[in-house]
Amino acid sequence: MVSLRLTLLIFLTILNFPFDHGEIVSSKPQGIRAAYWPSFTGYAASSIDTSYFSHIYYAFVLPSPTTYALDITSDDVEKLLEFTNATSLWNPPAKTVLSIGGGGGGALPGIFSSMTSEQYSRTNFINSTIKVARDYNFDGVDLDWELPSNESDMSNLGLLFKEWRETIEYEANATGRPRLILTSVVYYASTVSFDGGPRSYPTVEITKYVDWVSPMCFGYHGSWENFTGLGSALYDPNTNLSTNFGIGSWIQAGVPSEKIVLGMPLYGPTWSLQDRNDNIIGAPTTGTGPGSGLLVYSQVIDFNKENNSTIVFDNTMVSYYSYSGDSWISYDDVRSIELKVRYAQSQALGGYFFWALGQDLDWAISNAASETWLN
Questions:
Q1: Cα–Cα separations (whole angstroms), residue 364 to 5, 81, 266, 332
Q2: What residues act catalytically?
Q3: Nearest to residue 65, comparing CAs of 12, 108, 22?
Q4: What whole-number distance in Å separates Cα of residue 279 and Cα of residue 324?
Q5: Is the pLDDT of residue 219 over 70?
Q6: 138 pLDDT exceeds 60?
Q7: Which pTM was predicted?
Q8: C-alpha span between 95 and 284 (Å, rounded)
Q9: CA 352, CA 218: separation in Å to the nearest integer?
Q10: What does DSSP say about strands 319-324 and 310-314: parallel, antiparallel, or unpaired?
């Protein structure tokens, strides 16, 4: 009887002990506090203060337009080694993710479209991403395809995610190494409605195969428009160009909230006002403003100080803008970032990410976001 009771006690203890793939699950998940490191800006990887981040993305490497394997140039090797060597200096350590693709248009969207359209090319791509990630000791891989252009692209993207995850699982089982993380940057909303007909992301495959998606909740307004606007408004009572709409669309489409990582910018759009006395949101403009239409956060703060700018916090849309003379700037500052992080928590999101490292000022934004998320 004593032996039976002891056996039962051990069984119940094991049954109730929290495990996740063999690892103890924290009673309070820390979530994702991420940022991208642009390898092309000259900002040193060794300068990253990882006390503010759980994950650092390397941006970017590109696929070959012919073989679809990652095309690692000599410049890429230099930057990858810089990044890899820097990780040993980070205290505390952070997970590292290799990001593939990037914005800017050009040929890249077509390359991704062709790559995902055939199984052999998807296989070449997938195998090369795993090899490069392992060669440079990354913890995961990330797809930054901006943007799938039609429903066929979206369907093929779902196939890519399925095959990618299956191959990652197989590789981990075969080698005994921890499975690579699989993530993807996506449009701010689950459906894209410009540059072609409406098309929706493969949310079933995303939910099943991707560890998390990272909606780019910025770029709502910019120099392509002839009026001022907030580049990363949390809310917008007049349009669907807002973070609340975008995140809500992903949740409504069936993606679990914990698999959504909110993207926030460390830069903002600028305009030149048509009439310097008409300086509200929606005011007519004549072209780009300071920085040829874009300033990073540190530049915004410097500009505001040097030009004695008028600074406005819009309570309704939860974002900042400033103006001086005919210059008008939209941006986020500590208060709006804290409120956006609180919003992410209220929606039970998996975390947040920033584009990009090197654009903050004395880690003010990074610190505010991290402190808000963790407390």
A1: 57, 28, 11, 11
A2: 146
A3: 108
A4: 9
A5: yes
A6: yes
A7: 0.92
A8: 44
A9: 13
A10: antiparallel
